[in-house]
Amino acid sequence: LSHEFRRAIEEIKLRAPIEDVVREHVPSLKKAGAVWKACCPFHDEKTPSFVVDPRRGTWHCFGACAEGGDQIAFVERFSGLGFLDALEVLAARTGVDVPRGRGRGGERREADDPGYALLEGAARFYAERLAAPEGRAAREYLTGRGLSEATLADFGLGWAPAGGRELCGWARQGAAAGPAGGPGSSLDLLERCGLARRNESGHGYDFFRGRLVIPIRDERGRTVGFGARRLGEGDGPKYINTPETPYFKKGRLVYGFDKALAEARKARHLILVEGYTDVMAAHQVGLRRVGAVLGTSTGTDHAGLLRRCGARRIHLVFDGDEAGTLAARRALAGLLPLEVELSVVRLPIGEDPCDLLLREGAEAFLARIEAAPDWFEVLCGELEGRRGAELSQGVDELLELLQHVPRPVHRRSLVQELADRLGVGIETLREQWRSGARGRRRPAPATPPATAPEPSPDGEAPGEPEARVLQAFRGLVGAVLLDPSLVPLVRPLADECQDVGLSRILEVVLGMYEDLDAVIDPSSVLTVLGDHPARKQVAGLAEHAGRAASPKELLDGCLESLRRHHEGRRVDELKARFLVLEQRIREATDEVAQSAARSELERVANELTEVLRCGRTPEEEPSPTDGLPVHRVSPTART
Ligand SMILES: [Zn+2]
User: What is the strand order of the sheet 290-293 is part of?
Assistant: First the structure.
């Protein structure tokens, strides 16, 4: 991050203290000694495990979330935003000007982007036309579906006039045209927003003509594009969307997500339906954790967006027909990597969620979907009664989906269950997968699900020392976050840290230590980390370290643990060398080689004895911190 950018973040943090930012969204936040506590806004709980520490400038959930961070991270999590968007929210709130270029990536600043204003203006333009006489047929269609005026206004529905020049005409007028005038946008901008096209002679015409238009908003509620429905018989497909533009990226949009976020977060539950009207109907009956994935595929960007709402369970509601089955399958492929509980609800053919919701209400609809079985159950159920080639194809499709289950044990257990249900051995499924590999369009993955190596219980053992080392480095980083004067003790070990996130944090702390003006605390370290993924760990590391008797004591324990680890490794090396040399001595054919091996064996034996003796009496060991400054420099004294 650039220096100016960092300065701006520091300024924002000064003007909006962490406890204020959190309290705004979590009114139950209460002071408890030096910290503030509340029940965690991100998971359900009865006793508060959500702590805000103004001294460190961080929040942290000790409960199910085990997550934390600074003001920016809180807004990100609470409002389901990305780093830069959250930063912008805080910048607007505090009146701090975040410099252009944003330090990295050089993204445009949205506040300066006239595209958003044009899209918003276009939505208003269309909404006014819906209310005008020309929008009557569209209004009748919508009210005929049972949608109320309030819902239409809430979702900003509109009508695109049929003439083909109206929107362009309006948008290109400037303020000179009076209050009814448009933003004075250029045709280039209209095109860039997907609102206009150019004909052969270079004149612009409206992209949407004679259609009901539905504004599509991003997770922040900004209009980024439109869906448009043809009424009655006419030209073109029933539904069209804004083409992909810098604002409208289907792969990243969930219709209604901005309105669904708050409830989805609270209930940790999200319902995905297929259509715009399904979403509107759900909100109309008071069921707000409902959205619709745009486009035909649910990709990793969708998954990333959905992950942000913190839902633990997702219900996919689809029509019972062929198209619905296909859509459900595609959505599953995209959502399985999320590792949330996924259920697929198939409605009886002829029923759609919009009608059901408006007829039965939220409660009955919820009861219906809660009764739905887990996705795997549903797909296995579909295989029943199939035989021969039809069964084989169904199994292929299911195996392909299982590829998207990220965890091997989970995947393996599902493959086993499928084998049991089919009454075949797991080997048969592996064979099926392998034999189908050539026919698959995509190259077969390196580890197909059915043959994925199973982690054996003993396979965990070699990982154990590594886990201890990681634990030690976590403690070590936590200690320097709370007491930067410990940095010199940690520096010699920094290169050894294998964990990418911890390494990055350590690197930042070491870098800041070189800067005499820098105040090192969790909040300032977070500022420097910017949107590096490691920032998720900082508050937790600091909280953990805060529970030790003192950062120094924690550090000593960690250094000792690392020392033992090294020692253990050295002992293993020496033992192995010892055995090799023993054999060499036995098998040596000439005197010179034998005596060389003998003298090395002696050295190895001596070192081994030494190391083992020292290991038994750690109190006699020279401290690993000897020779390093013991007197702590207080951070204030350095500045
Ligand atoms: Zn929590």
Answer: 254-255, 290-293, 269-273, 313-318, 341-346
What pLDDT is stored for residue 107 in this prediction? 43
Q: Residues 627, 630, 631, CA angle at the centre, nearest 5°?
A: 140
β-strand partners of 158: 213
Ligand 1 centroid to 62 CA: how many Å? 7
Q: Give distance in angstroms: CA of 335 to centre of ligand 1.
A: 23
269: CA distance to ligand 1 center in Å? 15
Interval between CA 271 and ligand 1 midpoint (Å)? 22
Residues of the chain where predicted confidence (pLDDT) is lower than 50:
102-109, 438, 440-463, 616-639
pLDDT at 314: 92
What does the block give as tokens for 586?
Answer: 């036995």
Q: What's the pLDDT score for residue 296?
A: 58
pTM of the model: 0.56
Find the 636 Cα to ligand 1 centroid distance in Å.
Answer: 34
Three-class secondary structure assignment of 418-485: HHHHHCCCHHHHHHHHHHHHHHCCCCCCCCCHHHCCCCCHHHHCCHHHHHHHHHHHHHHHHHHHHCHH
| Ligand 1 mean position, distance from CA 509 (Å) | 27
51: CA distance to ligand 1 center in Å?
Answer: 10
